[in-house]
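Q&A log
Question type: sequence-to-structure
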Amino acid sequence: MNFKKTIFILCILLNITLAQPSYADSETYRVAGDENFPPYEYVDLDESYKGFNVDVIKAISLVTGMKFEFYPMKWEDAYNSISNGQADIIQGMKESEERKGSFLFSESLLVSSQSIFVLNSNTKINNERDLAGKIIALQKEDIIYEEINKIDNVTIIQHDSLHDALKALLYGEVDALIGNTLTVNYLCKERNSIELVKIVGESLNEQKYSIAVDKDNVLLLQKLNIGISEIQKSGMYDSLYRKWFGSPIKNTKTQYEILWKITIGICLGLIALIYVIKEFNNKLKIIIEEKTEEQRLLINELRHYDKLQFMDRIISSLAHEIRNPLTSIKIYTSQMKNKSDDKEFMLAATEDIPEEIDRVDSLIKEFMEYSSPKKPVIEELNLYKELIKTINLVKLQIRDIHLNIDIDKRYYIEFDRSQFKQVVLNILLNSLDAVKEVDYPIIIISAIKTEEDIVLTFKDNGYGMNKDDIQYIFEPFYTTKEYGNGVGMFVVKQIVEENKVTISAKSDGKQKGMSIILKIKKGELNEE
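Response status: OK
Response body:
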């Protein structure tokens, strides 16, 4: 690359820093929700607003570009928030004919129902009819109270919360619990009691559960429905559902009902199998190909988004690094007119100017390689050299960090070059955020060789994560940062798996540091 071409690319970089376009929806929508309805939506002990509904809204934001602000409050306040002008959206509500007079409802997120829960050892209660003469736990003001109270000789004990009602069931104080199916399932998972409880009989009081907007706001509803459709097609919805609701409590029916349904199901299945197996296989192949392509496109969009969120840091650091060689070149060129006869000066200029141009050229090449999209190619890379090149892209950002690199310069790894940069930048800048409040910030990058792999470790002394949080570090939209979006480490996991690499995280607890460990297939050891 000649000098004129280098200066031209520098001008382009400076233009990028001065004006970066925004493709997001300019309007921010206010989202109201219940502050105490786990796992749908709740404020945890750290004052963070979490839950299935919250993650669904965040996912819609990612695929549509819509912006949202969350307002957790008591349910009765959330219910009236749109009519009071406090919110534009209620992120979760059961549908009913009465409510359809005040709200428009999105495509259904799930079906909300209630179930009868008993201990796994209970063989006397198999359906609603068997509740006669039994002691039943309900949450106060439960809509099903009147129906259950009509059962002969039933005793109802009302509790302040489903959590207290579940405790009564587990401690043997009641014969059965009736409550929201998914909420009780979540509470059992939190108490490690999934195997102690079972569901009997049919579901009760089934209703669609959706996002609600004002009855006249048709345009907003259309945008939300587009987002719901996208996250369902991409598989993000299924991931979020598993994250918050986990494996369901087993639903036990009477032996007669089970045997009858299994028999009918097997007969129908065999008849259908004879006639449609060939057509089914063809359709299944098409569906799998479509879903695979949709997921691939979504992952690529997430990677591009992940690169863009760090681009301002990289460009500012790059501009800082380029300024020094340009200053040196400027000094030489400004004096050439008066020192053209000074052989010693001209000799120094002919040696130093090309060297400084090569330095600028190298930085620009590294930036272009990182930012330009291309098809991934796994190749042998010198681990130390690739790390240094990547670190140089954010040298300005880490100038106040004590960076310790303990890596044998002969180590080679197998990885796509551009994707390796994205992984390292993501981990490095996440570590940088973690140590920004530490008095003596340290980031250590080390590597050891095993029989098959190179184990690369990034360790910092910043704010760590507790054992309950760290299990979700690679989940989409999970973050402990005030302004985080939970995309970065999810993208890192997708990239490393494509490169046949394993990744794990380890923390000693809050304010005790964090480690990210990569096991990368090693290349040939080279003597240099």
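Response note: Residues 3-24 have pLDDT under 50 and may be disordered.
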